[in-house]
Structure formats: structure tokens, C-alpha cells
């Protein structure tokens, strides 16, 4: 039986997972015992993106009950009008209820509902590690100050208020070679430490994987 099957909502999430596990030290970054991951066998993308994952992702994962020990569901909370009309905890519980209905027991799956969206994982208060990925030209004060000057990052906040708008603004600059969102996310996931990440969904996933694969000390 294989280890973890990841169900993701779009190409950016797919690239993020691929990037993270392409780092040979992924087990050290997760602070867990090493396990196998293969993009062809352990990663699937829902054709209907976030609404599809929310509505029937459990049906996609039902066929993996016998082939994988665990499952991770990755979805953005901010699609349609969810931020205005949906309670976050209810959103997560709906997915969990559906997973249970097809046979996944609670200890075998984790729902990573990113609030509000994937871009929030890409930003840290110290932007020095991601600046080379954006080909930032190294202006005084760094990328964080550059975004603050453009009212895209409140100086009292640890991340931009609109993480996606901040990435789009950076991508619109003529700094180096033009990169897609997926290319950026894959590079950041592979090369940048998430140790300072304050996102509850990512930290929750890290903690769950540590439970599934606890470190074994020689």
C-alpha cells in the first residue's frame, strides 16, 4: 500500500505539492519520518477546481481507499462568495462528512482548506528568501517595502492583505524572465523554508503528517 494520496484543486496547488516533495530533504522540513511520494501515483487534480473538490472530492478519493494509507484534500476556501456566505468551520466539516460517507475514517485523512487562498502560503514577513525567485532587483528595503509603498502590504501585518494581488503586481514587473503562477509556487515550495509560516491549514497538515509518520531516532 502506498502512503498519502493528495487531491488538489488546480495547477498551482499541484505545482506546490510537486515542488515541496522534489526537495530531497522534505522529511526534515516536515520534521517527520521519510515516506514515499510519486507525482504520478500520489497526486490528482480535480477537473472542476475548488468547487469540484468541495462538492465531490470524496468520490474521487473513494477509489484510493485500498491503495493508500492516508489522504489529503487541498482546497481554497475563497471561491465563489464563500468569504461572505460560508462559515469556514462548516466548510471544512462538510468535506470531512463527505469523506467519512465513502469510507475514509478520521485518522486516515486531513482537509487542508487554505484561508483565504493558496497565495497566502507564499508570503512570509521576511521576503529575502523569495526575492530571487521573483528576480527582484534588490531595491533598498526589499520586496516587502516595495509592496508597502504601493499600498499592497500594511507595515503592521505579517503578510499582504490580498496575497494574490501582491503576487500579480510583482509578476507584472519587467524583472527577469516572466514566470507563471505555477512556476513561482513550485520554486517557493521547493526552495523556501515554511518554518515561519503562520497559516493554520499548512501547520495543521505538518502536524498531521508528523502523527502519521513520526520521527524515528536511531
Automatic annotation (TrEMBL):
InterPro entries recorded: MADS4-like
UniProt protein name: DUF4276 family protein
Species source reads Alginatibacterium sediminis
